[in-house]
Amino acid sequence: MTLLEVENLSTDFVGSDGVARRAVDGLSFRLRRGEALGLVGESGCGKTTAMLSLLRLLPPAGRIAAGAVRFDGDDLMRLSTDALRERRWRDLAIVFQGAMNALNPVRSVGEQIREAILLHRTRPRNEIDRRVGELLELVGIPAWRAAQFPHQYSGGMRQRAMIAMALACDPQLLIADEPTTALDVMVQAQIIELLDQLRRDLNLGLIIVTHDLGVVAELCQHVLVMYGGRLAEYGPVADVFSLPQHPYTQRLLAAFPDLDRPDAHLEGIPGTPPRLSDLPNGCRFHPRCPLAIARCRVEAPPPHQIAAGHVATCHLV
Ligand code: SF4
């Protein structure tokens, strides 16, 4: 059953020169309940802006230029600010990149989770302490540690605590922005396992924003590859990873270490992603694409369906 449907979402940023530049351009995808989607691409490709757009949490220079975001039947783009504020946390929650370092150092972790519950008034006051303990245990932290302060937690535990806080109001969709960045490999694996378990146990929709294709392979059923603010490829992880159709996806995968073939040669992607102030015409990947033809420099490729649910935007597919 579809939980989230994003259709043709476009977001502009207005620079200090007053010119609007398109940071997210015509993004469309769907997410079912209990399913995880990996949103991948290099830094600056528009992943985080896309997520902030669908939550309508853009900074002042950003504005939604077009598109619909249907969540559980409602178009979030049409809700009043107050109605949307109600939906955030209760229905959709986000764990921001690096949030585990933003815990208040002078207040206990339990107090901070308590505050999140009180802020959104989802429980009677006399149930809140019990709920704090439940949430911590849900993410694998013993309830007694609620009284401890962030510096008494390891990095992995602080990340778990941030996930507990995001789950405070029983959301149906959790967005996690780079949830394993800055954690060591063992702890990364534990956070991936936790998110996967929460997805299954709570029938949670998950969007994982990451540059790590290994996280997507382990956790996600679908993947959306972005480049220059546009969808490059979207489809089931098994299809996209085994038979990538877009030259950018092919390059991303070739640049990523494969645990089954540790001796395999890794090829980096020559060049750098485009800056928002200097987006190329036509296909935005053409300056780096080894397969580019003349048409790529002038005409943006439309989405092309390769198989059911598998789409790539390239003139050659
Ligand atoms: Fe490369 Fe052209 Fe395809 Fe873009 S449209 S990915 S430049 S071949």
What does this structure look like?
With 317 residues, the protein is α/β, with parallel strands linked by helices. It has 2 domains: 2-91 and 200-312, P-loop containing nucleotide triphosphate hydrolases (Rossmann fold, 3-Layer(aba) Sandwich), CATH 3.40.50.300; 93-170, no CATH class. Helix content is 29%, strand content 25%. It has helices at residues 47-54, 81-90, 109-119, 128-138, 155-166, 185-202, 213-219, 237-242, 247-254; strands spanning 2-14, 20-32, 36-40, 62-71, 74-75, 92-95, 173-177, 205-210, 222-227, 230-236, 304-307, 310-312. An 8-stranded mixed β-sheet has the order 6-7-8-3-9-10-12-11, with helices on both faces. The chain is globular. The two termini are 29 Å apart. The model has no long low-confidence stretch (mean pLDDT 91). It binds iron/sulfur cluster.
Summarize the structure.
α3 (109-119) crosses α4 (128-138), α3 (109-119) runs parallel beside α5 (155-166) and α5 packs parallel to α6 (185-202).
Sum up the structure in keywords:
317 residues, alpha/beta, Rossmann fold, 2 domains, four-stranded antiparallel β-sheet, 9 helices, 25% strand, binds iron/sulfur cluster
